[in-house]
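Lab manual, section 2.4: Encoding a predicted structure.

Procedure: take the sequence of the chain (394 residues), apply the prediction step described in section 2.3, and record the output as structure tokens. A sample record is shown.
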Amino acid sequence: MSKIDRITVIVLDSFGVGEMPDAAKYGDEGSHTLGGICRVNTDLSVPNLVNMGLGNISPFEQVPPVDQPIAFWGKMAEASPGKDTTTGHWEMMGLVLDTEFPTFPDGFPPEFMSRFEEAVGRKTLGNKAASGTIILDELGEEHIKTGSLIIYTSADSVFQIAAHEEVVPVPELYGICEIARKMLTGKYEVGRVIARPFVGEPGNFSRTYNRHDYAVPPTSSTLLDLMGEAGVTTYGVGKIGDIFCGQGVQHSTRTQGNSDGMVVLAENLDRYPDGFHYLNLVDFDMNYGHRRDPVGYGKCLEEFDQQLPSIVTRLGPRDLLFLTADHGNDPTFPGTDHCREYVPILAYSPAHTPGADLGVRSSFADLAATIAEVWNIRGVKYGTSFADGLLSSH
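Recorded output:
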């Protein structure tokens, strides 16, 4: 097996490639994030992703299959129940959950909300499942007048707190979220508390990149922890550090969206010739999936495709790059929530082209098992490695 010194994983947050067999259980039958984007954006152009083999996973007219993709291609099913960011990322790092995090589609119980208001010294508005942008239009003006916090959730296991940065300064909002995180235990232990700062005037509010996620710590060790024990340095870019509560992430860099994340990753690759580099690109999900904006999603995907060579050209024969996602979020599907979809897996190394079909993987944890085998790291409990097929000589 080839010697690999550096592995990079880029997560295109929410970029699903079609409903999973159990999608109907989640109300997601018929969802297809890539398909929805292609139906609306008839002139979509993503030549670099096509060259890597995206169309070999899920072909569309704008994303056709190619005879010899430079990357290995396949798709992965989620073994854990649910369809949220935390569960998806944990599973791709080898932690498969047996039960879902609790959700509160009808809002959080009055008993909890009264205790929360007393603890933070502010009243609340909303407390319901809602789109993060629509609820600002609905309650933003009242929030500015009263100083009450906007609380909302979704089909995901989240407790989200929105506040205007001139009404509740960002450090205060973070402190409020930390209080909420400590209170949300037991039957209320949601996967994430999310600070959602925003700016602007009524009718023209916009969320800022001062968002901060407060996840529960992983329930057991992940591949990130095992890497540290094996002497591999880990670098998280974007919200990776938040998703894992910093556990196993030795160096963490926050970003101002997708483009900035790609720039930071490129700088890290220039600076560090080895280690594990893990990037989440949140704009796909936050700005376009949840907002049901397929045109914006398509443009965002094209922008990523244009930046992809800035990463690929920095890779040498001892590099391995994976592109994947953590769940779906079809911008043409009803509602505003994530979708239970397969995610793509594209694996590229300059030393091993062209690629081959990796098939349909039964768990996101196959990614963790593969990385563990490449680096001879023991302790990953879940997943089936595809390293032999990936790095075998052609």
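Check your result against the sample. The mean pLDDT is 96.
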